[in-house]
Amino acid sequence: MIGLASVDITPDFITSLAGYNKNIPRESEGVHDRIFAKAVLIEKNNCTVVILSVPAVNIGISSVKIIRSEINLALNIPKQNILVHATHSHSCPRSEGRYKSFLEQRCIQCIKESFINRFHGKVAFGRTTVSECGKNRRRLLYGGLPVDPEVIVMKIEDDNDNLKAIIYNYACHCTVLGVDNKLISEDWVYFANNLIEQQKGSDVISVFIQGASGDINPGYSAGLSAIGAKIPTRNWNEAQRIGEKIANAVLTTIDGIVVEEIINLKSATHRFKLPARIDYPISLNEATEQLKQAEEKLEQYKKSGKKSEIKLDEAKTGVFFASLVKSGAEDFYSGKWGKYLWAEVQAIRINNNIIASLPGEVFCEDGMSLKKNSAAQHTMIAELSNTIEAEGYIPSASAYEEGDYEVYCSRYRQDAASILIKESLKNINNII
Length: 432
Fold this sequence. Notes:
Layout: E1 2-8, E2 30-31, E3 36-44, E4 47-54, H1 61-75, E5 82-86, H2 97-116, E6 121-129, E7 135-136, E8 150-158, E9 163-170, E10 183-184, H3 188-200, E11 205-210, E12 216-217, H4 222-226, H5 236-254, E13 265-275, H6 284-304, H7 309-334, E14 340-350, E15 353-357, E16 361-362, H8 364-373, E17 378-382, E18 393-394, H9 399-402, H10 405-409, H11 416-429
Parallel strand pairs: 2-10, 4-5, 9-11, 15-17, 16-18
Antiparallel strand pairs: 1-3, 3-4, 6-8, 7-12, 8-9, 13-14, 14-15
Helix pairs in contact: 1-2, 3-5, 6-7, 8-11
């Protein structure tokens, strides 16, 4: 039995949009496209699993607990069998205040509706690739590579061969639109879903699952983004180009996928400790001094009378990064981060295929490693899922020497990403 549901989670009140620099106010001024939580419920014999995909930057620990607990009470589905995933759009409402409780209740409603909507169904998985969509923002000088070009597709039909849903998995931040956008939107995912549903019919649900995209975005520097720099490619046309290119890849693949009965359905959840940082690149005094110098450099440029937007952005970016390092140093030396953070990984087996959850934002290199070493025929990665304690950036070990945005933000020890992938593979191997 398979159940599907889509529930509107667009607020009818003004709310703060998520992502980017909190120092730049960003309240919603309207709606470009309405946003929807989407649930896929599958049951076979004594096993029931739920995959909930939510257009949000992340879903915090308290919300995950509430959603799981309410569904457990209402439908008797084990909490650990419910995968709560955020697609990571930076143009969706921040999950806090009035919107937080609104979002939680709509997500609970969505899963309940998927249970009511159950039908006898079949599934199949396939894969394809795309290019010139996601780019490695840490490697823009090297062509924006490496990236994970793979798009994994899951097709759901009923017993009458009617297409019911398409679930697709790709690794790229939903952040074509920058800090200047104040309209609620799923970003490029809206255009992808819109084209898929136009081509396959409005009764078909298109569900996006975000892959390992910690270092992958549509092609711009994290620093320039954070200061709100004007980047010409960050516009609705580019969001449409990327979304429709990914959608067309899905559409050209889906018809060739032959569905089959679900013979094997399992879910395994594993919790473990991810080690927190044991050192920081510089002392707090050094970080304080670097921020002071960066601020002085910015002020000097402003007073110089020169008018290069590029040089001004460089100076602003210097202040941003220096502030980031100082904030990280304060947190580290205060002991705020502790010695470890509890992480959860989940593996859902559907025949010989796996949907694997990861907490936080994982680099594409580690995501590709997980897929390469998985024993499954196809392995979808759903990052930003099942938040307990572990969240935020979990960079690859090699990134720590290089530094930059994700590393300065990270609370984790250098080997945390490799531990995470190892534990996820162990969890997958328990059920595959």
